[in-house]
TrEMBL record:
Residues 150-181 are annotated as: Disordered. Residues 171-181 have a biased composition (Basic and acidic residues). One of its GO terms (molecular function) is zinc ion binding. Keywords: Metal-binding, Nucleus, Zinc, Zinc-finger. This is Protein FAR1-RELATED SEQUENCE. It comes from Sesamum calycinum. Putative transcription activator involved in regulating light control of development. It comes from the Eukaryota. GO terms for biological process: regulation of DNA-templated transcription. Its main location: nucleus.
Length: 755
């Protein structure tokens, strides 16, 4: 049987723990082949296809043909049912195929409830989301019904294409050497025969005569260890389109199906060429290391090879830029990781970024937006929140490859640049490599998962339930967003798991284990500078600089974005010192906060102050100096919060955790201060990072008698930043220059600084 090299398109995202007859794509739809892999065979070899939730199809038509063939075997007919369209663009996102006896429009129909529903996912594939197999009528003789045939476009004959695949995405035999091809159908019997035999440990440098041999080796090794494998990604030469590398992965790699747990085990082989005249090709395992580690509750053999995803031209251009910037800005920091003489990860931060971290490095976003789609360069950034609630650049990185080693190096480079700064919190992706790197470099920092990734994973794993079952959607969102205590959350979560039979779902197990990194209840007790739990910080670079920006425009756009954002910050600084917000009450606390906060933050506080007038507080408990109040909105008994107030220390805390999360007192705490007739807020409840004078950073409140050596780098950055602005202002005219010079001379005398 001919075998084509386009098999990867069928196996990359599909859940096949047993690789079956997936090569016959010219004669049967991919969905049927999936079904054959998962179905049962009788003595004659006929496949008894069983539809199941999670089954994937390349198109809705393939799903229809699959269900039609299944119906033929069982003994009923089907027809097309309801379709669902997107509210955004009107495209079809879901279809139902029903038993021909569904409904009662004709006498022959019995209202049969049997159906399948397929839903289109982000990858473009169609996933079987719902199924009901029970019929309310007798079946006809199996196999005697002629299924309706779908008129399908035939694939054009694949042609050899230098530098890439054909337009159909399927390559012919002629494109690749026989040693490049993994003949799964031929290997099926060989695999079973070989699975019980002994096999050695995989190690770097192990050679094979073909990709088939490498697959057989790893299959047998996996069988002996106790796991299954499937074919992962392949890599082609940019010069002639030939296959240069392949990956074989654990069957539980990824999260595309509930049975998958994101296992990190894989083996990667790379084609080696040697000899003269006739090229003798060998396949070598190119593994950096081999570790048996615990992942997702089980053991995985993790093997990695570190190769850079950064084009060589990028290193030259960026290094030239870094050196020119360092000549202008002595506080400019950059680092390049070298691995076996080759450039890997890159990190850089100018003096302004490093200075800003001293002020606003408590809550950090590690922005890896490039991972959402295609990119020219894997560009990532560290972003903070300034005292105007604007995004603030704290450093940039270009990521060579997404491994724990890479992320660890990048986080360590950032920490070195920021003189060992350890953020209170960091928002970053959920990937295990990032999780482990943050835990290693920033122990004690609260890692919160990116909102966009949580939403994407929810859609991937719960899309069908959320879109089709309104009751589940309501109960799930209530559990996540409305739980006020850990016991409330656990109770609601357990009810969901039991009611919808999700107790053994791998994705739910993992998300519960990591609940402190994404559930609002567990996030709100940590300072995140008010970045919404269901949202994210505005992109620092916006559309000016993206991961799609080509090399010849990257530096220019980077500088443009930097200039734009820093100019916006200067405007807000000017407004905060020269404009005043309008007061709405005669409460001296309002005047106190207007004097200290930036305009943006004063408006946040003012909203809470005004809202507190519509709340009532009732003392419910007294323990020594601590009184507890139940604070609720007038006319709305559902909104309740408990506030604890210490009359001797004026310490106050609220169950809503707004101050802990955002750094601004909530309406509930302000109501209790009103009840206790507190006319001025204790200074600890007006965070310096939100004040007009935040640019002095932590040095403003530092003890002058302490060790100044601890703050030396910070003092240098602060003075350098102030001096830069001073020089720019003093050089605008000859008169200003003379005045600036005289002031500097006076300052020199005051510091006892010799000429």
């Amino acid at each position: 049987m001919p075998v084509i090299a386009g098999w990867l398109m069928l196996t990359t995202d599909m859940n096949r723990e047993e690789l079956g007859n997936i090569m016959t794509v010219r004669t049967k739809p991919a969905a049927l082949l999936v079904a054959q892999s998962n179905g049962h065979r009788d003595d004659e070899g006929e496949s008894k296809m069983e539809p199941q939730v999670g089954l994937e199809f390349d198109s809705a038509e393939e799903a229809q043909e699959f269900y039609s063939c299944y119906a033929t075997q069982v003994g009923f007919k089907i027809r097309i049912g309801q379709l669902y369209r997107s509210r955004v663009d009107g495209s079809v996102i879901s279809r139902r195929f029903v038993c021909s006896k569904e409904g009662f429009q004709t006498n022959s129909r019995t209202g049969c409830p049997a159906f399948i529903r397929v839903q289109k996912v982000d990858s473009g594939k169609w996933v079987l989301a719902n199924i009901k197999k029970e019929h309310n009528h007798e079946f006809e003789a199996s196999g005697e019904i002629c299924p309706p045939r779908i008129q399908r476009k035939s694939f054009p004959t694949p042609r050899s294409s230098v530098g890439g695949a054909s337009r159909t995405g399927i390559r012919s035999h002629e494109d690749d050497s026989p040693s490049d091809i993994v003949d799964i159908k031929r290997l099926k019997k060989e695999e079973m025969d070989a699975a019980g035999g002994p096999v050695g440990e995989p190690y770097k440098g192990l050679e094979f005569n073909s990709a088939n041999d490498a697959y057989k080796f790893y299959y047998t090794y996996a069988a002996n260890i106790g796991f299954r494998i499937r074919i992962g990604q392949l890599f082609r030469s940019k010069h002639d389109g030939s296959i240069t590398s392949r990956r074989f992965v654990c069957s539980k790699e990824g999260h595309q199906h509930p049975s998958r747990v994101g296992c990190g085990a894989y083996m990667r082989i790379q084609r080696q060429e040697s000899g003269r005249g006739i090229i003798e090709r060998k396949e070598a395992v190119v593994l950096e290391n081999l570790d048996l580690v615990e992942t997702n509750g089980g053991l995985s053999l993790v093997k990695r090879v570190r190769e850079s995803n950064i084009g060589s031209d990028w290193y030259n251009v960026l290094l030239d830029y870094f050196q020119s910037r360092q000549a202008e800005d002595t506080g400019f920091f950059y680092a390049v990781e070298m691995r076996e003489g080759k450039g890997m990860n890159i990190f850089w931060a100018d003096a302004r970024c490093r200075f800003s971290c001293a002020q606003f490095g408590d809550a950090v976003v590690f922005d890896t937006t490039y991972r959402r789609g295609s990119y020219s360069v894997p560009f990532a950034s560290f972003v903070g929140v300034n005292h105007h609630r604007q995004p603030l650049l704290l450093g940039c990185a270009i990521i060579a490859e997404e491994s724990e080693e890479s992320f660890t190096w990048i986080f360590q480079a950032w920490a070195r640049a920021m003189s060992g700064c350890r953020p209170v919190s960091i928002i970053a992706d959920q990937d295990r490599a990032i999780q482990q790197s943050i835990a290693q470099v920033f122990p004690g920092t609260h890692h919160r998962f990116s909102a966009w990734q949580i939403l994407a994973k929810e859609q991937e794993n719960l899309g069908a339930l959320l879109s089709m079952d309104a009751e589940f959607k309501y109960e799930y969102e209530t559990c996540i967003f409305q739980s006020q205590t850990a016991s409330e959350f656990d109770s609601a979560w357990n009810m969901l798991m039991n009611k919808y039979n999700l107790r053994e779902n791998a994705w739910f197990k993992e998300m519960y284990r990591m609940r402190k990194s994404w559930v609002p209840l567990h996030i709100k007790g940590t300072f995140f500078a008010g970045i919404p739990v269901d949202g994210s910080l505005k992109s620092y670079f916006g559309t000016i600089l993206t991961a799609q920006t080509p090399l010849n425009e990257f530096i220019v756009r980077y500088e443009k974005a930097l200039k734009h954002c820093r100019e916006e910050e200067r405007k807000e600084d000017f407004n905060s010192f020269n404009l005043q917000a309008v007061l709405h009450t005669k409460d001296p606390i309002e005047e106190q906060c207007r004097r200290l906060y930036t305009i943006t933050m004063f408006k946040v506080f003012q909203k809470e102050l005004l809202e507190c007038y519509s709340y009532v507080g009732i003392k419910i408990n007294v323990e020594g100096a601590i009184s507890r109040y139940l604070v609720q909105k007038c006319g709305n008994g559902d909104e309740r919060n408990t506030v604890a107030f210490n009359a001797s220390t004026l310490n106050i805390s609220c169950s809503c955790k707004m101050f802990e999360f955002e750094g601004v007192l909530c309406r509930h705490a302000l109501k209790v201060f009103q009840i206790m007739n507190i006319r001025e807020l204790p200074s600890r409840y007006i965070l310096h990072r939100w004040s007009k004078n935040a640019k002095y950073g932590i040095l403003r409140d530092a003890d002058s008698g302490g060790g100044s050596q601890d703050f030396k780098a910070l003092m240098i950055w602060c003075l350098r930043e102030e001096a830069r602005s001073y020089i720019e202002a003093g050089a605008t005219s000859l008169e200003r220059y003379k005045l600036a010079f005289e002031i500097m001379q006076e300052g020199r005398r005051n510091l006892c600084w010799p000429n």
